[in-house]
Each structure stands twice: as structure tokens, then as C-alpha cells.
Design goal:
This protein has 10 helices and no strands. By secondary structure, the protein is mainly alpha-helical. Helix 5 crosses helix 9 and helix 6 runs antiparallel to helix 9. The N and C termini lie far apart (about 100 Å). About 10% of the residues have low confidence.
């Protein structure tokens, strides 16, 4: 009888505690579920900017870094343990370098953007030799070396960037390489850009016979988008090649005329440049054939200003400068080996223009007024 009573009490006690246990279990489940619901998850990783934007940001960062280094170098006093101020010639070249980099930074800055807001390049694509990562140069020769490194990086990135950005990067890199040579010469240092060739890769072979559509009568007419060699189906590429060939043919004619009026070292230099331009014409014509693009006919002659006949040097400088936009257009409208050839041609044209006394400017090959570029924030 006593065991029956104890069993009965146990049966009564279990139901009485069961609701409380169930409530505690439910509360525990609610707390756990709320913790899971409100636990902050990992924020989604922002997409990586396109390569062209990364290349622009890297170019902007390098230009600003080098500009700051140039400012510091030009303002460094003597006798204070800091780098000695450059000599007069080097000091002038440093000032020109700072001016060039200021204009280039403005060209690379998007409207309304501040330099600190520019996206940075990913560590996987950043160059270990980027000028922005270099230590501040201690003299003009060091600044020239860093400037040449930046110029080489810009030309390399231009080969893979989108059309318009490729032209801008090629222009910036070309001007930086030219200025690095001028700065090194003023400082009495070896040219850090001498190892950057302007010959470019060999032009592609012509398209196989019968693989191109029938040629049209107009040199500026574009072949059908199905042409086997058309770069990315760009219908403007044949026109850019035709314009470049015409410009180069006029330059060849100018050198031929100039050679009858030059002598000594100037004549020898002109003869070498004439051979170079004849090779460029052949290369551009080969590229046109590979793109199934019409080739403009060669003209018997071109009109030259009377001042050209009296003083060929400035006239040759003007002819060389006139080829820069044609190469810039080809950089923007082509890709692959054709673009590499055009980038190399742009560098060579800028060097020849400078050789004859022309100023290719801060962005050679880019038809833009520097006054229209965004303004850099103060400081």
C-alpha cells in the first residue's frame, strides 16, 4: 500500500513540472533563434574594379607620389642633413617634371573625385616596381629612374586596358619616359628610359589570299564585321590605319625634301629617321592587310609650307608631332599585337618630335586641352 502511494505521488508530480520545462525549452529555442537571426553575417566583398579603373588609379597614385617627391627634391635646402638641392640645370628639369606630373594627375583624375577616393590596385596586380611604392628619391637621377619605372608600367597597362583608357595611359607613359630622359640628362646620369625600345613588335603577316572580302574603293570604308582580322569587330580600325598610313606617307615625303636641304649631322639624323618612317609605312600597310582593311594609295607629293623649305628642322618637328594623334587613335581602336605596335609607334614619334625641337606635351597622342582637366584639390 505504501509503494502504491509513492507511485501515485510520482505520477502527480511529473505532470505538474512538465509545462514549466516545456516553457523553458521554448524560451531557450526562441533565444537561440533570435541570436541566429540577428547575428551579423560577413558583409559581401565589394567587386574588384575593372582592370582599366585599377590601371587609372595606379597611374594617378604614381603621378601624385612622384609629384610630391619632385616638390620635396626641389625645395630641399643644403647643409641641414637633408638631400642637397639639385644644380641649376637639374633644378629646372625637376620643376618641369613636377609641372608635367601635375597635369597628368589632373588628366587621370575623374571629375568630382579626390585623390584619396581613388580605388587602389589589388596586391595581385600591383607592380613591385611601381613608383608609388618606391622610396622618395634622394636626387634628380633617382627621380628620373622612378619616373621611367612609372612610364614603363603605364605602357604595359595600356596594352590591356579599354580603348579610351589605353590611349590615356599610353600618352601618360610616353611623356613620363621622355621626361625621365630629359631629367637624367640634366642631372648627368644615364638615361633610365634608353632600354625601352620604340621599334615595337613585328607587324602581323597579311591575311591569307582569298580570306578577305572584296576591297572597297574608299580607304576609310570599314570591312564587314566578319572580316577575319577585325580587332574585336571594331569598324573604326580600318579608318585609323588608313589615316596613320596617310600621315606617315606625308612625313616620308617631308624627310625626302628635307634631305636635299640638310647637311652634316642633321642630314645623317634625317636619313635615319626617313628609313624609320618608311619601315613604319610598311608595318602599317601590313597591319591593314592583316585586318582586311583598304590601303590608301601613295600620292606623288604633298604641299609643304615655304618656311619648311627655308628651315627644314622645325618643319620636321611639326610633321613628327602631327603623327602623334594618329598613333593615339590606333592605340584606342585596336587591341593585341596591333595595339602594342601602335603604343611603340607613339613613343617613337614623341621621341623624334622632341629630337627636332617639338614639345609633345604632357599627354602626347591625346587631343585634349589641359585646361579642361579636373583641378587637383589644394594640398
Amino acid at each position: 500500500m505504501k509503494d502504491d502511494s509513492r507511485e501515485e505521488r510520482r505520477r502527480v508530480r511529473v505532470p505538474r513540472h512538465l509545462p514549466r520545462l516545456a516553457l523553458l525549452v521554448c524560451l531557450a529555442l526562441v533565444v537561440v533563434s533570435l541570436g541566429i537571426a540577428f547575428r551579423p553575417g560577413n558583409p559581401p566583398k565589394p567587386p574588384e574594379p575593372p582592370f582599366s579603373e585599377q590601371a587609372r588609379a595606379a597611374a594617378l597614385g604614381d603621378a601624385l607620389q612622384l609629384r610630391t617627391a619632385g616638390d620635396q627634391l626641389g625645395a630641399a635646402p643644403t647643409g641641414t642633413g637633408r638631400p642637397a638641392a639639385p644644380a641649376a640645370a637639374a633644378g629646372t628639369a625637376v620643376a618641369r617634371t613636377v609641372s608635367l606630373l601635375t597635369t597628368q594627375a589632373r588628366a587621370l583624375l575623374r571629375p568630382g573625385q579626390t585623390p584619396s577616393a581613388a580605388p587602389t590596385r589589388s596586391t595581385t596586380s600591383a607592380s613591385a616596381t611601381s613608383a608609388a611604392a618606391s622610396a622618395a628619391p634622394v636626387d634628380a637621377a633617382g627621380l628620373a629612374a622612378d619616373l621611367a619605372k612609372s612610364g614603363r608600367r603605364r605602357l604595359s597597362d595600356a596594352a590591356a586596358a579599354d580603348g579610351g583608357m589605353a590611349r590615356l595611359l599610353a600618352a601618360v607613359g610616353t611623356a613620363q619616359l621622355l621626361q625621365s630622359s630629359a631629367l637624367a640628362a640634366a642631372a648627368g646620369a644615364p638615361d633610365p628610359a634608353a632600354s625601352v625600345p620604340a621599334a615595337g613588335p613585328a607587324a602581323p603577316d597579311a591575311a591569307p589570299a582569298g580570306s578577305c572580302p572584296a576591297a572597297t574603293a574608299s580607304p576609310s570604308a570599314a570591312p564587314a564585321s566578319s572580316s577575319p582580322g577585325a580587332a574585336a569587330g571594331n569598324a573604326e580600325l580600318p579608318g585609323a590605319l588608313a589615316a596613320l598610313i596617310s600621315t606617315e606617307l606625308e612625313t616620308v615625303y617631308g624627310y625626302q625634301v628635307a634631305l636635299t636641304r640638310l647637311d652634316g649631322a642633321a642630314a645623317r639624323s634625317a636619313a635615319g629617321q626617313l628609313a624609320r618612317h618608311e619601315a613604319l609605312v610598311s608595318g602599317a600597310e601590313s597591319l591593314s592587310r592583316s585586318q582586311c582593311a583598304p590601303i590608301p594609295p601613295r600620292q606623288p607629293g604633298y604641299a609643304l609650307d615655304p618656311s619648311f623649305l627655308a628651315s627644314p628642322g622645325p618643319g620636321l618637328a611639326a610633321l613628327e608631332a602631327a603623327t602623334l594623334p594618329a598613333y593615339g587613335d590606333l592605340v584606342a581602336l585596336s587591341d593585341g599585337e596591333t595595339r602594342k605596335w601602335a603604343i611603340s609607334g607613339l613613343l617613337g614619334a614623341a621621341r623624334r618630335a622632341a629630337l627636332w625641337g617639338a614639345n609633345p606635351g604632357p599627354v602626347p597622342g591625346l587631343a585634349a586641352d589641359p585646361a579642361s582637366f579636373p583641378t587637383l584639390p589644394a594640398g
